[in-house]
Amino acid sequence: MDLTSKQRAYLKSLSGKIEPIFQIGKSSLTPSLTDAVSDALEKRELVKISVLKNCADDPKELAQIVAERTHADVVQVIGKKIILYRPSRKSPKIELPST
Questions:
Q1: Beta strands 81-85; 73-78: pairing state
Q2: Inter-residue contact 55 to 81 (CB < 8 Å)
Q3: pLDDT value at position 95?
Q4: What value does the mean pLDDT of the chain take?
């Protein structure tokens, strides 16, 4: 699913109120972290991830990898913060504006 600029802007405004719930450190992306992010996306739909200074990988590349593995959309990458969105399969909470 590709987000429109209007939908992306709406999700960015929602993400301003949430804190990062995951951190990517020097061990980079582990399968357990990917699974945890996927579970969190199912429950919350919008997740913020913080990339720590000791992580050598580029946050934009990490965002793309996590998004591919969790079938999510990258909403935004600002500095070392990644925001991902995936609608819940069971009970969607966030209603995106129509295009």
A1: antiparallel
A2: no
A3: 83
A4: 91
